[in-house]
Design goal:
The protein is mainly beta. The protein contains two helices and seven strands, in the order ββαβββββα. The protein has one domain. The two termini are 25 Å apart. The relative contact order is 0.17. The structure holds calcium ion (2 copies). The site of one calcium ion (CA) has 6 residues, from loops.
């Protein structure tokens, strides 16, 4: 997985899992920033700096094959600085919001270089759920 910060085409903070790392169907994998609160870290499968995201950065998830890296999913538009973030105002704005893939989306965005409109593939968690106590984290991450 690679992070493309602030419109860059050069990846930073790459994350590589062990060979044959497989996510079970229906499972989730939570990556939390090293500087997050202990409460949030408690939900992490992994602590990593690839989460240095503040709204205007792109992610690309690859499957590594002998023939090269194959894009499996992406978020944002690689090489494009959207200003503060993508999606304008509203719950799917990529700044200070939690976005969850729509249940109707059954495959990844395998073109990291085309235009990105988060509302097409994501549902935004309303801002009122930010900065809530543990109960809300449970609702968001474990339900
Ligand atoms: Ca950024
Ligand atoms: Ca795309």
């Amino acid at each position: 997985m690679e992070l493309f910060a602030n419109g860059s085409t050069n990846p930073t903070n790459p994350l590589t899992w062990d060979t044959e790392t497989i996510l079970a169907a229906g499972d989730t994998y939570v990556i939390v920033n090293n500087n997050a609160s202990d409460e949030l870290k408690a939900y992490a499968d992994l602590l990593h700096g690839i989460t240095n995201f503040n709204g205007d950065d792109a992610f690309v998830l690859y499957r590594i094959t002998p023939e090269g890296n194959v894009v499996q999913d992406s978020f944002g538009q690689r090489g494009v600085d959207p200003g503060a973030g993508w999606g304008g105002s509203g719950d799917t704005y990529t700044v200070d919001h939690t976005l969850v893939r729509k249940s109707t989306v059954c495959q990844g965005d395998t073109d990291p270089d085309d235009a990105f409109e988060p509302a097409l593939e994501y549902v935004g968690i309303p801002e009122r759920y930010l900065y809530q106590p543990r109960q809300s984290y449970n609702e968001l991450f474990r339900s």
